[in-house]
Amino acid sequence: MDDRIDERSGVELPAPSWQTAGLFAAVGVLVVGTALDSPSALSVEGQRTLAVFLSALVLWLTRPVPYVISSVLSVTLLFVLGAVDSFGAATTGFTSTLVFFLLLLLLLGDATASVGLDQRLAGQLLTAESTPRRALRSVAGSVLALALVMPSAMARAVTFVPIVKRLAGAFDTEDGFESAAFLILGHVNPIASMALMTGGGMALVTAEIVSTSVGPITWVDWAVLMVPPTVLLYALAALAAGLFARVDGETTVSTTRVPRTEAGDDGLQLRTDGDETRPTPEDGLATLTRDQRLVAVVLLGAVAAWIGGSFVGLPTVVPAVAAVTVLSLPSVGVITADDIADVNWGIIFLIGAMLSILDAMNATGAITAVVDALTRLIPFAALSNWQIAAVLIALAVAIRVLFSTGSAAIVVALPIVLEFASSFGIDRLPLALTVLLVVGSTTILPFNTTAVLVSMDRGPLSHRDIAAFGLVTMALSIAVAALSWLVYWPLVR
Questions:
Q1: How far, in Å, are 41, 44, 49, 84, 363 from residue 38 at the CA level?
Q2: Is residue 14 part of a domain?
Q3: Is residue 156 part of a domain?
Q4: What is the rounded CA–CA span in Å between residue 25 and residue 298?
Q5: DSSP label at 11?
Q6: Which domain holds residue 311?
Q7: Which among 125, 146, 295, 456 has the fewest CB atoms less than 10 Å away?
Q8: Where are stretches of biased composition, namely Basic and acidic residues (predicted)?
Q9: 89-127 pLDDT tens trace
Q10: 128: which strand partners?
């Protein structure tokens, strides 16, 4: 039977046969894990927690039921099976700041899109250049700039699809511009979300785990550590996209030939070289609607509060709460009940459930038992620190390939990686940031990243293109992370 597409997220769902197999596998894992006698190195509570963890992973990977249902089921099983003492102890992850912060950022990102501010910003940033190579640079730079105000890579991809279609229609030659542009929208675009702590789910999850396991990290701390490596990685990946698709830098085209295609018939005007009517910044602000100006001012205020709050100890969630509250006021009405209903609750519940399970694994000693078991299988004691780090990063990448979102992969892999790092005396902060850079840049299968699914659906990319360029971005992320670990991060810490 054919695969299905989730209409809300655009994510390709496994075929029903796989969903049925996954459901039976999850039940089997749970039954076996709770029925067998626990080994001496693991308590009964720890064994049952591991059984719930593995069962939840199977459900999340095969998706026989929505994420919300499987997540609620998982935390309920922690309590019912006696892995924890109370239902409150089974749901500790849902009281994490991360869950609420992610919800608030999703609402702010949706507000940016709902008032059309994203398209207005894209139109102001993007210029229809005279060669495919210059146009590609313009697209890449504009996507990076828009990432500062829109923490959703998929939303950015959807915003730029019609723009890329319009630009591609201006070039007669098979120059590779469209393929390269869709590689940027799919593979390179999510990299921009890692620059700021508030840039998206992957950064938020990593920051929360770092704050819990390593030490406090502020918005400014994150920016200092991550903006230069992220921008460097983004630039290298964008350059690689042009080389990968062999974009022509010689063919010229009159800017008046930039067509309005069916996909781009959205009223969005691109600036052109030599255009005497090019709007000035003042004109651009004056032409914004009331709602667009309100959202722009509120977002700028939130960013300023995050920066200032880093120096006075203001929790990062507070500016986000204030911003969402202002945009929800009756006199403003930008964020409505419909917007809240349309939030991707599945990923929020998945992260809350995974954090709850991790808390239970720590409390019952299950995570320590997992680390000990892996240590017996892999001769970590015979490896140097960099070799151990390489093995841990490879483990994180292997977990990443299984998941449809980087956030879910990180919330599963990073605590285990940091537990190993603590056991072997490896500096955990640069290791955590390295895991983020590599996991966030690795897309081997189309379903690994929703932005890639969008770009593959709308553009000329094949499965082979997706996998091949995913390996390229992964290799670049490893190189940038190694350079940062050896040179940059020691200078700024």
A1: 8, 6, 11, 16, 16
A2: no
A3: yes
A4: 47
A5: P
A6: 98-341
A7: 125
A8: 272-281
A9: 999 989 888 888 888 888 887 888 788 877 776 666 566
A10: 272
